[in-house]
What does this fold into?
Amino acid sequence: MQTKDITYQGGGKTLTGYLADGSNGKKTAGILICHQGGGLRDHEKERARMLADLGYVAFCLDMYGEEVKEREDAMRLLNAVSQNQQLWGDRIRAGLDQLKVQPNVDAKRLAAIGFCFGGMTVIEAVRATPELKCVVAFHPGLTHLPEADARPIHGSLLVCAGQKDPLIPDEARNRFFKLMAEAKADLQYINYSQAGHSFTDASVAQFNMPNFEYHEPTDRRSWAAMRDLFDETLGKVA
It folds into this structure.
């Protein structure tokens, strides 16, 4: 496996992403990874290495171009991107472009995964970037969805969400289903009854927030569901 940081431009800022290449010199599928609200951290880099171990080339994009030091920083940066659809799309495409130019990436076999804000981002990406065969959203926030979105959906979508997630109240979940039905999306939505928000991230315990907690069985099961969708849409990695 080869890993490195990559500096690139996107949406008016200098951004720094992280690449993990497990191709061993062969053409393989490329996976874009979208970080949580706290910015690109060890959590996403570890997931990139896990994907590289499976034989993929994985690239963690940078949506902010700034280091997040406080929760207020995270909310400011997150809102600046998510409330500007043009900027959001520009940052997604900038990260995807970095993945596509990697010499061992098969540009016809691309997917994206995201966590929390990154889950919101891949749900946006499935409309903004037709190159993606599939996207997987882990514990995405769904509380700020529009009432309608006429843009088509490209590729398959898997959402892995906890029943106890405070960022997915019933109203938001039902609005999401309505939007997906209107777009005739190829959607799988897996509801994990014992999980809350950030169930993939063991470091979330430090924030001591209700129903924000790591849940190992859901982490493991949702990762397996992702792998099944990758095999179906991207083909098995040799």
Notes: The beta strands are 2-10, 13-21, 28-34, 57-60, 105-115, 132-138, 156-162, 186-192. The longest strand covers residues 105-115. Helices lie at 42-53, 71-82, 85-100, 117-128, 170-182, 216-234.
